[in-house]
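Q: How would the structure tokens look for this protein?
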Amino acid sequence: MVFLEMLYKGRNLNSIWFTVNRNNESSIAVYEKKGFRTVREQIADIGNGFVMDDFIMEKEIPVP
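A: Here is the predicted structure in token form.
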């Protein structure tokens, strides 16, 4: 994560975001400790009656 933050700062990007399965509680806890927050929920139909049931998590990166 530190590498990504440095990379984003160097490119003047102001946030990192990704999806994580809403049932992946251990990963969500780690991401929250690293400063990420849940910004919205996403349910995507992937066919045959299956869906991806995710949170979108984001961390703002201060741009110098």
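Residues 2-10 form the longest helix (9 residues).

The chain has one domain: 2-60.

Upvote if useful.
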